Automatic annotation (TrEMBL):
Cellular component terms (Gene Ontology): plasma membrane
Pfam families assigned: UT
Alphabetically ordered keywords of this record: Cell membrane, Membrane, Transmembrane, Transmembrane helix
Family assignment from sequence similarity: Belongs to the urea transporter family.
Membrane topology: Multi-pass membrane protein
InterPro entries: Ammonium/urea_transptr, Urea_transporter
Protein name: Urea transporter
One annotated GO molecular function: urea transmembrane transporter activity
Organism: endosymbiont of Ridgeia piscesae
Membrane spanning stretches: 25-48, 55-76, 82-101, 108-126, 132-153
Domain of life: Bacteria
UniProt keyword annotation of Cell membrane present: yes
Subcellular localization, as worded in the UniProt entry: Cell membrane
Length: 317
């Protein structure tokens, strides 16, 4: 018997086949993820999964076939209800490894199949131990397999697929589209696209590895100015108001959270430098990928806890 839960598991099994064959077993296992081991419940959940993401629905079917097939081949079905209450581990593992935390592709699909097989082996091993104490397997194989696979893949240098999305998991359709755009732009797979932090057309005064101030570790920075007739200021340029970019709104270059801001320093008159506060006022934006984006040399008038794409943060140059 499958522990002390046998008296509760058997009544949950349908008396008459719903569809028949492995379809009933798959739907029952899917329903078990929500503690409703019945093919009708699993069918509703599968329809919702299919509506949300066709790729996740495909992974669910593939993961169950691989995991349950290996389970039946190696064990000959340890217990009639083990496939019902343990089969959802194969489904969830495949969805997590191959769809939520990685960019879709044939390599990530192969990784998900390996994860489903590993989850099946862990199910058999854990079931043999827990059966002695009358404790069900539940989601232990899913958790062990997923955490182990993702931790191992995180140590890998991601120069080729599969690319992991540990910091920003998403639906596979969304992550695939983002990866496609990244490849089209010639950027790195885990790069974060930034938008210009201003309206209109500005010029880059100093770029990466700039000769003036953009030296390591701050070499990856851009300085922007506005020029009219080849000049960045009007009149003699003795006042801050003479510069074309002064007092114009600055926008957030990305979506994130304001991690830190400094708005207490006064504006330096043209030609003067505050050597004690070289960076001046700034805004530090924490991205969803745990990277940081900084907007320097700005006087912050007001800042919210959230930063949105192309929404003015209401701070001046």
């Amino acid at each position: 018997a499958y522990g002390n839960l046998s008296v509760y598991l058997f009544p949950s099994a349908p008396v008459e086949p719903f569809v028949g064959g492995w379809t009933d077993a798959f739907l029952t296992a899917l329903g078990s993820a929500f503690f409703i081991p019945h093919p009708v419940a699993g069918l509703f959940f599968f329809i919702g999964l299919l509506w949300t993401s066709r790729y996740l629905a495909l992974l669910a079917v593939v993961g169950y076939l691989v995991g349950d097939g290996l389970l039946q081949w190696l064990s000959g079905s340890i217990h009639p209800t083990l496939g019902q209450w343990g089969g959802f581990n194969f489904i969830l593992t495949t969805i997590a490894v191959g769809g939520i935390f990685s960019v879709p592709g044939w390599r990530s699909l192969l990784l998900a199949i390996i994860a489903a097989a590993l989850s099946s082996l862990i199910t058999m091993a854990v079931q043999g131990v827990l059966q002695v104490y009358g404790v069900p397997v539940l989601a232990i194989p899913f958790l062990l397999t997923t955490l182990t696979m993702l931790a191992a893949m995180r140590k890998r240098v991601a120069t080729t697929p599969p690319y992991l999305l540990l910091e920003a998991p998403a639906l596979p359709e969304h992550s695939y589209e983002r990866a496609r755009l990244v490849r089209a732009r010639g950027a790195e797979p885990e790069s974060v696209p930034l938008r210009a932090p201003f309206f209109g057309s500005w010029r880059v005064y100093q770029g990466f590895d700039g000769p003036h101030t953009h030296q390591p570790p701050w070499q990856h920075a851009l300085d922007f100015i506005i020029t009219e007739q080849g000049r960045s200021f009007r009149n003699a340029g003795h006042r801050l108001q003479d510069f074309h970019c002064f007092d114009l709104p600055v926008l957030s270059p990305c979506h994130g959270t304001v991690a830190r801001c400094l708005d207490e320093l006064p504006d330096n008159p043209p030609g003067e430098v505050d050597s004690n506060n070289n960076w001046g006022n700034f805004l530090l934006i924490r991205l969803s990928t745990s990277c940081d984006s900084r907007v320097w040399h700005s006087v912050i008038i007001a800042c919210d806890r959230r930063v949105w794409h192309y929404v003015s943060m209401a701070f001046d140059n």
